[in-house]
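Good morning C.,

I know you're traveling, so I'll keep this short. The sequence:
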Amino acid sequence: MDTVLRTELQRGCETLGLALDLRQEKKLLAYLELLGKWNNAYNLTAVREPGQMVTRHLLDSLAVAPYLRGDRVIDVGTGAGLPGIPLAILYPQRDFSLLDSNGKKTRFLFQVKTALRLDNMQVHHQRVESFRPSEPFDAVISRAFASLADMVADCRHLLADNGCFFAMKGTYPEQEIAALDPSCQVIAVNSLEVPGLSEQRHLVELMMLNRGEPG
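The tokens, ready to paste straight into the viewer:
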């Protein structure tokens, strides 16, 4: 295990108030190693420097951990597995589904699942509009949607009653919040401090007041 990266990860998690055991540290750094190898051929992420990957991928994903609720979580538009893979490693007792329509990316996700033995993680290669799970999810999380309104419109069929949307954003999304349908209630907008990152990060929590299907 790269001692420099491990130290960065440990310090960052300590700042976030997260306690990782050695197995979790190894899996997180093994994930970054796989991401670096596959990135050369698959172009999974624009971040290529390992130290930046710790900050912008691992710690950025783990920063939402204190707010995440529910036993069944789906990461929509997960791409290279963010934030789903770091969260699945952190919370082995919870079930995580990772959904993406890009075949190259989901092949990488299957490789990570197999190599790291992430039995609590399922990978789905499908568009969100056509994905119909066997049972709904307690939480829908994403950092890939263009707007909060799009996330709600495309993902509401995935959410269980009393479930919650968790939208990862950069700057405070004032205009996106104002554009939300009245049937969607903002529960909280949490300001996140990602260790080593000077840019703004926010986590928006949303719930549906009217669970009827649109249209």
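Safe travels,
E.
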